């Protein structure tokens, strides 16, 4: 099998059911998800310590789901019966978020990406995920698409924020607080 097909040399690419320009918002949306998937793979490769095995397993599962998200966005015409992403994935992310958040210290100030190398990479995942979500919002304004993908990306960026903090906790590294931040987050009991 040849990796190069030469079919894209004129600025078009194949999607399920046809061809579109390579700069089409549909390609931009699932391409940004593909970019995110690469950073998630990098984070998974960094999570080698035993105390990070649960996180590594989650990230590998997320890579599969991101590929499903891209697949769901690659249709020329709506194909609900072939979608792979549904609301159950977002619900499971919420459970994971709650589990990891229970390990984290209370958040009082804005934090900056950083701390451990893994946490910094997870923050990159978070920001690329937000960009992917914005691209999907733009796509949804132009054509019908699987709304569960948008919901999943929204929840996934929250997941990356929380697990970046957990990666720092497990590494014994403090989050990097924004020094000019007031105490903006308060516990409910205050």
UniProtKB/TrEMBL annotation:
EC numbers, comma separated: 2.5.1.17
Domain Cobalamin adenosyltransferase-like, chain residue ranges per copy: 3-167
InterPro entries in UniProt: CblAdoTrfase-like, CblAdoTrfase-like_sf, PduO-typ
Catalytic activity annotation: 2 cob(II)yrinate a,c diamide + reduced [electron-transfer flavoprotein] + 2 ATP = 2 adenosylcob(III)yrinate a,c-diamide + 2 triphosphate + oxidized [electron-transfer flavoprotein] + 3 H(+); 2 cob(II)alamin + reduced [electron-transfer flavoprotein] + 2 ATP = 2 adenosylcob(III)alamin + 2 triphosphate + oxidized [electron-transfer flavoprotein] + 3 H(+)
Gene Ontology molecular function terms on file: corrinoid adenosyltransferase activity
Record's keyword terms, sorted: ATP-binding, Cobalamin biosynthesis, Nucleotide-binding, Transferase
Pathway: Cofactor biosynthesis; adenosylcobalamin biosynthesis; adenosylcobalamin from cob(II)yrinate a,c-diamide: step 2/7
Family according to the record: Belongs to the Cob(I)alamin adenosyltransferase family.
PANTHER family to which the protein is assigned, alphabetical: CORRINOID ADENOSYLTRANSFERASE, CORRINOID ADENOSYLTRANSFERASE MMAB
Protein name from the UniProt record: Corrinoid adenosyltransferase
Species assigned in the record: Paenibacillus hunanensis
């Amino acid at each position: 099998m040849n990796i190069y097909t030469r079919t894209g040399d004129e600025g078009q690419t194949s999607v399920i059911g046809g061809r579109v320009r390579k700069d089409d918002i549909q390609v931009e949306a699932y391409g940004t998800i593909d970019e995110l998937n690469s950073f998630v793979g990098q984070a998974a490769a960094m999570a080698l310590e035993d105390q990070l095995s649960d996180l590594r397993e989650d990230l590998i599962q997320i890579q599969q789901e991101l590929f499903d998200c891209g697949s769901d966005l690659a249709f020329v015409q709506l194909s609900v019966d072939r979608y792979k992403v549904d609301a159950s994935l977002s619900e499971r992310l919420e459970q994971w978020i709650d589990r990891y958040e229970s390990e984290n210290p209370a958040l009082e100030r804005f934090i900056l990406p950083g701390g451990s190398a893994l946490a910094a990479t997870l923050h990159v995942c978070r920001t690329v995920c937000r960009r992917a979500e914005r691209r999907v919002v733009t796509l949804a304004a132009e054509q019908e698409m699987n709304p569960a993908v948008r919901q999943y990306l929204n929840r996934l960026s929250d997941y990356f924020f929380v697990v970046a903090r957990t990666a720092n906790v497990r590494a014994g590294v403090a989050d990097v607080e924004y020094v000019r931040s007031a105490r903006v987050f308060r516990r409910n009991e205050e």
